[in-house]
Amino acid sequence: MNITAKFGGDDSFHNRLLSYLNQTLPYQIDCLTPVRRNVFIVRLNDGFQFVLKGYPSLRRLKIQEAFIQSLKKEGFPYTYSFYSFPKEQCLYFESQYYGLLEFLHKGEKPFSYNSRKNCQEGLQLLQSFHKTSEKLVGSYKTILPFFHLIEKWEERYQQFKHNIPLLSLFLQKEIINDLTSWAEWSLAYLKQEKETLYSFPNVILHGDVAHHNFFRTSEGELLLIDFDLISIGPDITDYLQYANRILPFLHWSFQQLSSFEQFHPYFKHNVFLYALAYPTDIFREWNRLVKDHTYNDTRKVRSVMELTLGQYDNRRAFYEEIKTRVTIR
Question: Do the domains spanning 2-102 and 116-327 agree at the CATH topology level?
C-alpha cells in the first residue's frame, strides 16, 4: 500500500485515513493520492480507481448523491456517478463524511476557455444542464438555498471597500476608484431592475462554472462536475458567471461575447448589461487574498495582479461600451 504525496499535506493524516479505509472498505487499496483538500484518488490492487471526496456534514453528502441521481434520472447523463454503500453504512473520518465518486479518465487536452469552440460547447452543456435542473426545482426548493445575486455582490463590494487600506499597497488609487465606480454603477441599476432579474426561469444553478468544472474525458465527451455550490435561482445567474469567465479569453470584446447564441435572450435586457459591468472576479480574488492572509505570497499576489491589470484597458473599454449601449436603448 502506498501514499502518493501531492500538494504537501499531512502525511500522518493520510496514513490514518488509509488505515481507516482498509478497515472499513471491502477492498484491497494499493494507492491513496491526495488531489486537493479532502479529495483523493484511490487505486485498488486490481487497478480499479475511484475518487474519495469529503463533505463537512452527512446532509451535504446526501444532497450531492441525491442531486446527481436526480439529474441522471431526468435525462442529464453528462457527469459522474456516486457509488452506493450498503444500507446504514457511511464513511466518517475526522469530522468529514466521505463519498465514493466515479473516477473519470482525462482526455489528452483538458477543457479550457481558450478557444471559441470550447466556449460554445461549454455553453451548450450548461444550457442542457439548466433544462434538466429546471424540472428539479420543485423537489429541491426546501433543500437548497435561493441565490440572491444582488445581495451577494453588495456584500462582495463592501468587503472590497473594507480591504482598500491594505489593497492600496498593491493597486494605484485610480485603479481602485475605477473598480468601485463600476461596481456602484452596476449595483445601483441592478437594484432598479431587480424585478426583471428575478423574472428569468428558476433553475438549480451550478454556481461555479470555472473551466475546471468542465471535464473532457478520454473519449472526447464533455462533462459538468463539482456541484458543491448548487442553489436555486434565475438561470441568468450562471450565464453571467460564464460570461465573466470567458471574457478575458475574448479580450473583453463585446462583439464576440454577444455572438454566442445562448446569450441572445439575455442581451435583450438591460439588467444583463448592468451585471456585466460589475468586476466580480477582481473583487472575489482580492477579498480571498485578504481573508486567507496570503498577500505576502508573491506567487498568489502576482496572479491576482495579472487578473486585475493584464487586460485593464480592454475591460475599461468594455465597461464604457456597456454604458453606451444601455443609454441608446
Answer: no
Instruction: Please state the domain extents for the chain.
Output: 2-102, 116-327
Alpha-carbon distance of 258 to 10, in angstroms, equals 47
Q: Work out the average pLDDT over 33-55.
A: 94
pTM higher than 0.90 for the full model? yes
Counting every residue written for the chain, the total comes to: 329
Q: Are 225 and 215 in contact (CB under 8 A)?
A: yes
Burial class (CB in 10 A: 0-12, 13-18, 19+), 240: buried
- State how far the alpha carbon of 215 is from the alpha carbons of 78, 79, 138, 170, 227, in Å: 10, 9, 28, 35, 13
Cα(324)–Cα(322) distance, integer angstroms = 5
Residues β-bridged to residue 205: 231
Quick: pLDDT tens for 301-313: 999 999 999 999 9
Q: Residue 232: beta bridge partners?
A: 146, 204
Question: CA-CA distances (angstroms) from residue 90 to 39, 86, 232, 312?
Answer: 16, 8, 28, 49
Task: Name residue 274's amino acid.
Answer: Y
2-102 has which fold?
Answer: Phosphorylase Kinase; domain 1 (3.30.200)
Neighbours of 139 (CB within 10 A): 14
Crossing angle of helices 58-73 and 116-133, in 10° steps, is 100
**Cα–Cα dist 68/80, whole Å:** 8
The span from the CA of 329 to the CA of 324, in Å, is: 9
**Domain 116-327 class?**
alpha beta
Pairing of strands 96-102, 82-83: antiparallel
Cell of 279: 468586476
Q: Name residue 224's beta-bridge partners.
A: 214
Cell numbers standing for residue 314: 480592454
DSSP state letter for 217: B
pLDDT digits (tens, 9 = 90+) for 227-261: 999 999 999 999 999 999 999 999 999 999 999 99
3-state secondary structure of 180: helix
